[in-house]
Design brief:
alpha/beta, TIM Barrel, 12-stranded mixed beta sheet, binds S-adenosylmethionine, binds iron/sulfur cluster
Length: 321
């Protein structure tokens, strides 16, 4: 079992397999970054897998693959298979913009993927273009439908933005509900890479919109997740992720690994340690040491809500959100 310096059990690893993306979402990557990480600096799947094995052997039992856009990485299904074959019972999930799932969902499911979170901020073509910089809606919807058809459990991630998609939260909610997918509204997190004029809706504003049509009760956080869950009278559950709070930090169970091999103990803080040298040399002892050191130094809580805290300069497309 892995325990951090504050006594929290850490069993959840999020792995970003690339920082590249085929979208340019206004809240994440409105411009192509000034410089991409050179391809040769990315860890290979074998190197990432070496670290994942160390983490699983030490007690990680929940893994989420993310990015950038993870489906851009060639032969992602083979990587999923490496992980799912390693040990039974690992909760393996993927977060994606869904654009390539029409073609790719089946191979991912066959490789052992069970759960998938797909980002969907609008059901309008022009708004999708405005948010992502590309005509994406038809393919994203196709990706959602295909994922469901091949038996993946789908959640929808939506970032409510003032004046952009806040007028269609009910439609998005009802779309997800009709498909039997949980929708999770994620409060926009300010960051220095986002388009500067963006304003997000807070949890209360989101709940007021849903509450104008549906009655629901709060049922608490989903395990150690920052998602606050709500249940309608008919049993449908939806979530709101409010990263500006830090009451969920006391149960935080996660660490993040970037595609370059930086192990990040907390999304908010800049601190990170590299596992690159260790995995390049196949040095399991060193990789374990880095993992334990990162856990020992994991901060107690984030500072999104501090008045003096600055806008995060960490790119979500690097950390995987
Ligand atoms: N490309 C994939 C996708 O869009 O789902 C995976 C990576 S993306 C960084 C992971 C999640 O972070 C997405 O659901 C996205 O909506 C969310 N995200 C990105 N930037 C955000 C921001 N500034 N505030 C809130 N959520 C953000
Ligand atoms: Fe790409 Fe996902 Fe960031 Fe959008 S949120 S730019 S799809 S990484």
């Amino acid at each position: 079992m892995l325990v951090d310096g504050h006594g929290r059990e850490v069993n959840y690893l999020r792995v970003s397999v690339t920082e590249r993306c085929n979208f340019r979402c206004q809240y994440c990557m409105p411009e192509k970054p000034f410089s991409w990480v050179p391809k040769e600096n990315l860890l290979s799947f074998e190197e990432l897998f070496l670290f994942i094995k160390v983490a699983i052997d030490e007690g990680v039992n929940k893994i989420r693959i993310t990015g950038g856009e993870p489906t851009l990485r060639h032969e992602l299904d083979k990587f999923i298979k490496m992980i799912s074959n390693y040990k039974d019972g690992i909760d393996l999930a993927l977060t994606t913009n869904g654009y390539l799932l029409g073609e790719g969902a089946e191979a991912l499911q066959k490789a052992g993927l069970k759960r998938i979170n797909i980002s969907l901020d609008t059901l309008k073509k022009d708004v999708a273009f405005k948010i992502t910089g590309k005509d994406v809606l038809v393919k994203v919807i196709e990706g959602i439908e295909k994922s469901l058809a091949v038996g993946l459990k789908v959640k929808i991630n939506t970032v409510p933005l003032r004046g952009i998609n806040d007028g269609e939260l009910i439609e998005l909610f009802e779309y997800a509900k009709a498909k039997g997918c949980q929708i999770r509204f994620i409060e926009y997190m300010e960051n220095s890479f986002a388009q500067s004029s963006l304003k997000g809706l807070n949890e209360k504003e989101i709940l007021d919109i849903i509450g104008a049509k549906y009655s629901f009760e709060k049922i608490g956080r989903e395990g150690a997740s920052p998602a606050q869950q709500y249940r309608l009278d008919d049993g449908y559950i939806f979530g709101v992720i409010d990263p500006h709070k830090h009451d969920f930090c006391e149960n935080c169970n996660r660490i993040r690994l970037t595609a370059e091999g930086m192990l990040i103990p907390c999304l908010y803080f800049e601190e990170a340690m590299s596992i690159k040298e260790a995995v390049e040399n196949g040095d399991i002892e060193k990789a374990t040491k880095v993992l334990k050191k990162v856990l020992k130094d994991k901060p107690k809580e984030n500072r999104w809500n501090d008045e003096n805290s600055e806008t995060s300069s960490r790119a979500f497309y690097e950390t995987g959100g």
